[in-house]
Amino acid sequence: MSQALEVNQYWTDIYFHLHYPHGEKITHQVVRILQLIEKKESIGVNDVASYLQISHNTASEHVKRLLGKNYIIKKRDPLDERKVLLALTELGKDVLYQNTSLDEERLNKILNEMNEKEKELVIQAFKLLSERAKTCM
Asked: Is the domain 22-101 a CATH 3.40.50.800 member?
């Protein structure tokens, strides 16, 4: 088994066992749009279209639905008033968190069962993987 396959298997096991129960029914594309807005700066409809590799009109429809659900808001770019940027609302942040994060209570229970060396090892491994992932895009 390749190391990448092994890491993927561990990650999917972790997520399967520790994710929050999904209350709000949202699509995978909606999750990806919310993540894009959260993780990148100055995101507009064109950025959404490019990221998802869909047409501007389709991206615009997705954005319109997210605005209607109060997950995002539109705001003017302070550096260029002609540009419209997207931002998460508090509800959008909560929905994204519930659909992408691990259940902190269950995660803390597992971490509390580890010794300090094990905890540090886990944290350092995730930190390193996170840092490297940010540089490959």
From this structure: no
